[in-house]
């Protein structure tokens, strides 16, 4: 019973949302101690704090194809089926440099929406995350770790039919939706076109207690194959780096940071969640 999809959860793509994950992968998830002990009883509110504890994104890894905690929480979301507006609030809540502890929540919410959302929702809600260049740790299929970025993860969700061997539902290409007038043409934000000359962070990211992975920048990102029109090469260079390290403000930085934290806490209060640590 603990593994059944909650009653009242809306179907996705014509069926049980959990069935969007293959049975063999689901069975591996259900057998994990992490699933039984850490995911039991989670709901749309408490899963936020559990996602904040994640140290990396991933699906399965190693010779035994062991499911990652990230995948376990994804299956849990498919099981409990939170409303899309709650997922949208997760995506918005976890935005910004001052919400660094929630970067994996944002990746999780985006991945979940990719499974259950309508095509227009997926593009409209995920494309803004393409300007979130915060670094994340990805656990690869062989079990090793690598540094990537949130925008790279989301770009894969938008342009591929699988992510680290985990199948994704079919997503129409953007230009097809535009031709059907189901989606407005894509526009690059003005600040991206103008560009901000900044360098990516070289600070190591913690994977687990006592372990770190050194950053290697954000080179070699895959071009978007869903037909978004691109700015010039120089504009694209700026687009890739402008968000991760913003220009240091000489005055009022602490006040602005506190304001952003207050805004995030206001949203958490609406969801009945504990405030962020300050």
Automatic annotation (TrEMBL):
<keyword id="KW-0508">mRNA splicing</keyword>
<feature type="compositionally biased region" description="Basic residues">
    <location>
        <begin position="237"/>
        <end position="252"/>
    </location>
</feature>
<keyword id="KW-0747">Spliceosome</keyword>
<feature type="region of interest" description="Disordered">
    <location>
        <begin position="195"/>
        <end position="278"/>
    </location>
</feature>
<comment type="similarity">
    <text>Belongs to the PRP38 family.</text>
</comment>
<dbReference type="Pfam" id="PF03371">
    <property type="entry name" value="PRP38"/>
</dbReference>
<dbReference type="GO" id="GO:0000398">
    <property type="term" value="P:mRNA splicing, via spliceosome"/>
</dbReference>
<dbReference type="GO" id="GO:0005681">
    <property type="term" value="C:spliceosomal complex"/>
</dbReference>
<keyword id="KW-0507">mRNA processing</keyword>
<comment type="function">
    <text>Required for pre-mRNA splicing.</text>
</comment>
<keyword id="KW-0539">Nucleus</keyword>
<feature type="compositionally biased region" description="Basic and acidic residues">
    <location>
        <begin position="218"/>
        <end position="236"/>
    </location>
</feature>
<dbReference type="InterPro" id="IPR005037">
    <property type="entry name" value="PRP38"/>
</dbReference>
<protein>
    <recommendedName>
        <fullName>Pre-mRNA-splicing factor 38</fullName>
    </recommendedName>
</protein>
